[in-house]
Amino acid sequence: MANNFFSYFIFYDMKRCINSIFITIISVLIVLLFFLSCNKTLTESSFEEFEIKDEGGKTRKIGLYLPVGYNPKEEYPVIYMADGLVFKDCSYRSMVDSLITLGSIRPVVIACSFENKTRIPGFTIAYRNAEYIDALSKQDSTLSKLFESHMAFFTGTFIPYIEKRCNVSRDRNERIFYGTSNSADFGLTLSMRHPELIGEYWCFSPVYSDWDGYGMLSEPTNYRICWGIKEEVGQEDYFPALLKSIRKRGGYVKDWTFDGGHDRGWWRQWFALELERRFPVEE
Questions:
Q1: What is the pTM for the complete model shown?
Q2: Cα(86)–Cα(79) distance, rounded to whole angstroms?
Q3: DSSP reduced 3-state for 247
Q4: Is 248 exposed, middle or buried (0-12, 13-18, 19+ CB in 10 A)?
Q5: What is the pLDDT at residue 212?
Q6: What pLDDT does residue 19 have?
Q7: CA of 166: how far to CAs of 77, 159, 183, 277, in Å?
Q8: Domain 42-278 fold
Q9: What number of other Cβ atoms are within 10 A of residue 258's Cβ?
């Protein structure tokens, strides 16, 4: 009886030991597979969406495009967008994939901060408008808090998060901002508030930027600004005044018009052309 009793415990201890070893092996394999997946060259592009919290604890949605052939051991130029839905809904991924595959451009990483189109309680505008347009923040304390919170998120949480997650350049001259409509206005303000971050801004069809109160740019900054001749606002007075204000503060501006209106299709077309200009394949 005693022998059976001790045999049971010996068997039980051996079983528990084997289970422990098995669990350890599985854990090591999982970690190894994760490490390999994070350090392998991509055979096709990827676009992943994440939710991260800003400094105030608010959950915000972002997206990350990694090009085909992405190798984590290599450093890539990066484009930061303030309108993730534009990238997602307008098939930017397939367009960029095609340009890279055809050899028209070098691989580039694109990071998107998604806009919030929900209407602000007590206001007739959406969070997107308040978070992107500095001029609105000067009219109301609630709107000011929303704008400042988003600016802090974009500069202090979003960009550092992307830099930790993938191998993108920290050089401001290898960073580009891309925005359309209200997000273009956000980019223009970003360039004045944080000139050390990004060296080039692609701002298509900005709507409502107010540069009063800002001084000279402390860093050399390039701007690529376009708008349609059929835009409903700003054609006669806003755009010329905006360009003059940027140049007055030391910014280099390349501006042009296109035969269209406030339209995502036109913006997508010009984005592709800007990619070809900025990231040509080196011969």
A1: 0.84
A2: 14
A3: helix
A4: exposed
A5: 79
A6: 53
A7: 11, 11, 24, 24
A8: Rossmann fold (3.40.50)
A9: 18
